[in-house]
Amino acid sequence: MDAASRTDPPLQADEATTLRAFLDYHRDTLRWKVDGLTQEQLAATTASSTMTLAGLLKHLALVESNWFEVVLAGEKLMPPFATVDWKEDPDWEWRTATDDTPEELMALFDDAVARADRAIDAALARPTGIETPSARTTRSGDQHFSLRWILLHMIEEYARHNGHADLLRESIDGQTGE
User: Fold this and answer.
1) Other beta carbons less than 10 A from residue 68's beta carbon
2) How far apart are CA 18 and CA 38, in angstroms?
């Protein structure tokens, strides 16, 4: 994948289409940043950080599953995340990602995105649409997230992490871009 193969979000569309297009754009940006790298390159760090592109892929797969499957739909985390002892190892996805091959990481990420898209489709099919409340409540237990809020949060999550990915990729092979 390269920058040209990403689809720009539409300038004129309904709210749900626009939000999903921005989310897909950022998902594809991450795919572009890791495309063609070896396991060793995905495990590379910058001098001042332990963050890796491998860790970003695995972290964002976890975030997709958590927000769309767990919070929105009320389901469990997808494998392998469902069996992790998060209290014992809260950075498990970051720590273990460098043991995974590029193919394993992309398969996990793409599976998480597909599962998340199914949860989004199901919520949008409800009469409440973009206003569909999450199955799970906030930490205080008194409010539900709307699908709109979750989509915007995920766009923010990708935008932030794609900035990290850009720095990491540049340090590996000099490739820069959006």
Assistant:
1) 27
2) 34
Phi, psi of 45 (to 5 degrees): -120, 165
pTM: 0.82
Closest CA to 38 of 113, 107, 104: 104
Query: Distance (Å, rounded) from C-alpha 54 to C-alpha 40?
Result: 9
| Backbone torsion region of residue 2, taken as left when φ is above 0, otherwise alpha when ψ lies between -120 and 50, otherwise beta | beta
Give 120-178 pLDDT, tens digit per residue.
999 999 999 999 999 999 888 888 999 998 999 999 999 999 999 998 999 899 988 76
Distances (CA, A) of 95 to 23, 34, 83, 123, 154: 26, 18, 15, 33, 22
